[in-house]
Amino acid sequence: MLMKDVKVSNGTKIIPGFAGGKNNSVNIKELLKDIDVRRLRRSSLNIYPTDYCNRRCPFCKLTGVLTTEEDRNDMTMKDIDTIIDFCKRSRVNQISILGGEPSHHPQIVDLIERIYERGLCVGIIFTNGIFDNDELIKCILRHHIPVNMNYFPPDEYKDGQLELVHENMRRLFLESGDLKGMVGQKLSKGRKFALSITFYKPDQEYQYIIDACLKYKVDSIRWAASHSSTTQENRHVDFGLLRQMVPLTVNFVRDAIKAGISTGEECGLVPCILTKQEYRFLSRFTRGFIFRCEPILDVFPDLSVHYCMGMPIVSWITKENTLSQILLEQMIISEYFRRRPRSKVCLKCEWWQNKICQGYCLQYKYDKDNPEDRKLLAGLKWIEDRRQKSKDRCVIHST
Ligand code: SF4
Ligand code: SF4
User: What's the rounded Cα separation, in Å, for the pair 25 and 41?
Assistant: First the structure.
């Protein structure tokens, strides 16, 4: 069904609308061998309604592309209609809302209502919880929308923010508690709500988030080791630091499990840095513990679609294209980088040979000064353009 989207002539790829233009000379036939075409259907995608964030965490993958409040870009109602049209012709029925901080989009409630009016639903909302918007809370509760809230050490909040976050947790997590057995059932067993933590230093504290889960009856924590932003300006865990992060993550998962809280991980570790015992423990007690990634499909306010907000593989929503076409394009490009070993050590490793591990995050595998890599990575130009348009991109605080 999808092969018609790719015209292969003499092993040279030509994909209509291909981000890198039609002069790239990657051997598609060869790359397609490792792509499971059954993975070219998805039922959901993520939108970033705004590129403004009121917190700007030091580890954020949007570091360097977030805007100031004056300079922000917000999705319009017309944009959301374009995205919904795209979803309908792609047979996607769920839109998740991430950010930038989505609660600070000036029409966030209208935007959510439009998604429902047009027959789709919201998969999940990710928020930092620092918002004062009664209508939004009512809207989330009315539609039973799952919420994932980033929660930070209490002493990192300022000027009444902590009180606001706790009040929002109370309303979102406790007031809708009686709904968990209904709509949340499939998602959950409790996973309708989760708190979220990103690890970026080996001595990071985490007990506070377990305590908050217990207080607000949230029984799931999403965790991840911080990966680099496309601008590589955020605090991130490169391969050198990764092993040092293992005791922290193992202790965290152990303490969460002891407290009755389940954990889920996002594209974090690799097997070779774990002892057998650590590997068995983490793979048993952490959802999503895998070592290869797929396109996450994050849609920005300008309707660019990103592999993830760290890897500069970018496509665009047009009036005609579908999610499967974008997925195929991004899987081909990512496969090109995935096949590049992290080091010679990977080539001798059975995790690599069996295609279970991709040799850590793809973001560490390209060279932005290499012309061949640049041709494929339209996201590099996207970032440069964004940064040029505004000299006043966000300045990240460090902790
Ligand atoms: S493929 Fe490379 S990064 Fe992955 S486990 Fe093997 S040596 Fe480690
Ligand atoms: S490139 Fe892959 S592993 Fe790296 S952050 Fe993106 S999705 Fe995760």
Answer: 26
Q: What is the pLDDT of residue 167?
A: 97
The H helix count followed by the E strand count for the chain is 13, 13
- Ligand 2 midpoint to CA 270 (Å): 12
Q: If phi over 0 gives left and psi between -120 and 50 gives alpha, with beta otherwise, what is residue 355?
A: left
In this predicted model, what pLDDT tens digit does every residue of 52-108 receive, in sequence order?
999 888 888 888 888 888 889 999 999 999 999 999 999 999 999 998 899 999 999
pLDDT 10s digits, 315-370: 999 999 999 999 998 998 999 999 999 899 999 999 999 999 999 999 999 998 99
Q: What single DSSP character describes residue 175?
A: T
pLDDT of residue 391: 52
Contact 20, 378 (CB under 8 A): yes
Q: Are 137 and 145 in contact (CB under 8 A)?
A: no
- Per-residue pLDDT, averaged over 144-160, amounts to 94
pLDDT given at position 264: 93
Architecture of domain 41-322+371-390: Alpha-Beta Barrel (3.20)
Nearest CA to ligand 2 atom 4: 361
Helix (H, G, I), strand (E, B) or coil at 44: strand
Query: What tokens does 87 get?
Result: 């979803």
Please report the pLDDT score of residue 56 as a whole number. 84
- Please, are residues 210 and 186 in contact by the beta-carbon 8 Å criterion? no
Ligand nearest to the CA of 347: 1
Provide the b/e sequence for 293-311 (b: ≥16 CB within 10 Å).
Answer: bbbbbbbbbebbbbbbbbb
Check whether 45 has a pLDDT greater than 70: yes
pLDDT score recorded for residue 390: 56
Q: What are the residue boundaries of the structural domains of the chain, listed by start?
A: 1-29, 41-322+371-390
Q: Whose CA is nearest to atom 2 of ligand 2?
A: 293
Cβ-based neighbour number of residue 397 at 10 Å: 10
Strands 193-199 and 220-225: parallel
Say if pTM beats, i.e. exceeds, 0.85.
yes
Report which of 83, 90, 86, 92 is spatially closest to residue 114, judged by C-alpha positions. 83
Token pair, residue 352, equals 């690599």
Residues with CB under 6 A from ligand 2: 227, 267, 293, 296, 308, 310-311, 361-363
Q: Is 263 exposed, middle or buried (0-12, 13-18, 19+ CB in 10 A)?
A: buried
